[in-house]
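Suppose a classmate hands you a notebook page containing two proteins, each written out with its sequence and a corresponding row of structure tokens. How would you begin to make sense of it? This section walks through that situation. The first entry is reproduced here exactly as it would appear on such a page.
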Amino acid sequence: MAAAGGVSRPERDAAVLLTGVGKRYDIVSAFAQHAIVVAADPNPLAPAQYAADHRYPVPRIHDPAYVPALCELCERHGVGVVVPLTDLDLEVLAHASRDGLLPALVPDPEIARATFDKYEAHLLLERLGLPSPPTVLPGDPVDSFPVMIKPRQGSGARSIHRADDEAAAEFFVGYVKEPTMVQRFMDGPEFSIDTLSDQQGRCLNAIPRTMIESRGGESIKGTVIADEELIALGARASEALGVRGPCTIQVFRDRQIGLGITDVNTRFGGAFPAPMYAALPGRTYPELIVRMARGERLEPHVGEFRDGVTFTRYYWQLELDEQLRPTGRDIVEPPGPPAPR
């Protein structure tokens, strides 16, 4: 399909393929400042593709033609790195990367598979000596209440319920129509740590943030904090897991047991703007990934960022013509938030 038109950008000498772009316009447009961006998504109305230079419909993830389609795009555009923007194709890309088919910035297939299943992730974290709240499967004894009933493969805070006693836990396990797990209710504040690792699994940076407000499991307001304990945990966890590329680690600080990792997403998190705003000049995660695509070896700079940065997210939209091309019109002029006064 056609490249995004009417956008003046500086000279870019690397190409990046982003898969499952969906509505992550923030991520795609950030990459487009530094690289030629190829966007792949099976949905012809995925809004984020319009921030890319090239957009292509591709087969669905479990279609045998999916990986060959991505390989063809990489060859056509000289792509140096493939970055998924969703959980759904992580394991598929991990196998393709291990087989030498795609330059995908993803962990090993075993890690991608385990972190997609929250109970398997809990067991993996325990084996690696990383803190994880007490977690069991339905029917196993529970040390104490309250607990959280969670889908093992849930996302977006779907079907998560607090149970204050055994009867409530049994009810919610039956009520949620998919495999679940039972996890200790963490009585304390929630944080996320946005990390980035290179192709060798070295953590380049770890940027913690608070969770001021979330909707559907996605942070929409938060503040970046220079919490040394969280920074150290983020770096240690990402390296122990062998993460490559971006990762978001969700953590609670319980009043009794301290830190516990409740989720690991080996991709960009919903609150992508937080590490973008907090990064020092030249060190935003898209810039670093583009430098990896050029073949540069980067040096870790864990803990080097601006703390105290607060973000608040909002929605926007695009008008498309009959051929699904952006018209360039907007409903306000100029588009976006007002300039400071």
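The notebook's second entry, a different protein, reads as follows.
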Amino acid sequence: MISQNWIGLTGPQRSVTIFGIRLIGFNAKSAYKLLITVGYIAVVLTINWVVQGLTRLATQREKTKLWAFWLRQAVRIIAAILIIVGVVSVWANNASGLGTFLGLFSAGLAFALQRVVTALAGYIVILRANTFRIGDRITMGGVRGDVIKLGFIQTTIMEMGQPPGEQEDDPSMWVRARQYTGRVVMVTNDKVFDTPIYNYTREFPYIWEEIQLPISYNDDVRAAEQIILKAAQDHTVKISEMSEQSLREMERRYVMKRSDMQPRVYFRLTDNWIELSVRFISFDYDVRALKDRMSRQILAELGRAKIGIASSTYDVVGMPPLKVTIAGGEGRHDEGKQPKSAV
């Protein structure tokens, strides 16, 4: 029969015993500290949750979203610091106790939480180096899309598709353009140490794009060039719309030339056609809609100019000799009837 006193305190250290078995290192004092620790962490997390909620309510407008993001990050960091300082203060009564605690804590982290610590370090690097922020379009860990959340351990990305030329990339996409796929992907922050981080929007809100068009050698290639170039000039970002100060700043910071920002058509000779590639600059968003408008205009203008788009063709330059045998006799057939032949 089990005794009713299945749990109790024994010895001068008042160690906890269960069914007569003493738990090493766990006494009334440590139990009290554990209770204080749990209560303290619960209070800090509750305050953090309340402040986060008030922040969301006070920053619902579009203009305050960036400010709200940094405020929430600051609140989370403060809460984490308070928890760490409070736990250390409760459990470390003196310098030797603090050293023992830190030693055990470091050993546990090194063994069990390697990736977590690395991801946390990646979070600090992202904030300190301003690698990206909420709303930036990036490629991180093989995932391309817009950043919708940045946490201590993970970055949340709204995934987008890939243009046709990149469909073989891993992972492959069913959306054949830089538009949302509908999938939300979580990428650990430690990827900043392992893979390059491509940022499409940081400080420079433009990207260069191209449209390739095959034109037959028999068509008016110069006229086709003017049609394609005019479409690019009509629909893409114009240099004249940028302020002189912005242009000078771009030239200084990115070592760019203004001539590189003007639309230009390049020729490439192939076995079947002349490939015309128009290179132009555009905003980092809505590229698919821009190329759609350009393509419609180019098709209409090429139709008016009676210029076709080339495709792969084959010319037959020779045939082997054919032998024809007339059925029903040696070269004879009935009058009024067509002879039957077989090849």
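A careful reader of the second entry would note: The mean pLDDT is 79.
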